[in-house]
Design brief:
The protein has 79 residues and is mainly alpha-helical. The protein has helices at residues 8-54, 59-66, 70-78. The protein has one domain (8-78). Helix 1 packs antiparallel against helix 2 (59-66).
Length: 79
């Protein structure tokens, strides 16, 4: 292993860069988790809407129960 001595100012810059990389990685991880949760909630709402449509529940009630728009529900109906 090499033993390289860097000036203190360079060490601070490297430390700062590493901290930025770690913070960016934490932010990105949280963003992806949040995005995945939203996708999961949407998929669940679509599943519920399909079941309610199958049971003949009116669109207005399905909108309230799932927070999906009328257009989203109508698109599900077409599938």
């Amino acid at each position: 292993m090499y033993n390289v001595k860097l000036p203190t100012s360079s060490l601070y810059k490297v430390d700062s860069m590493l901290c930025d990389i770690i913070e960016n990685a934490k932010y990105e991880k949280q963003r992806l988790l949040d995005e995945g949760r939203l996708e999961g909630k949407l998929e669940k709402s679509i599943e519920i809407a399909k079941s309610l449509l199958f049971e003949g529940i009116p669109l207005g009630i399905i909108e309230k129960c799932t927070n999906l728009s009328k257009e989203q529900i109508q698109n599900i109906k077409l599938d």
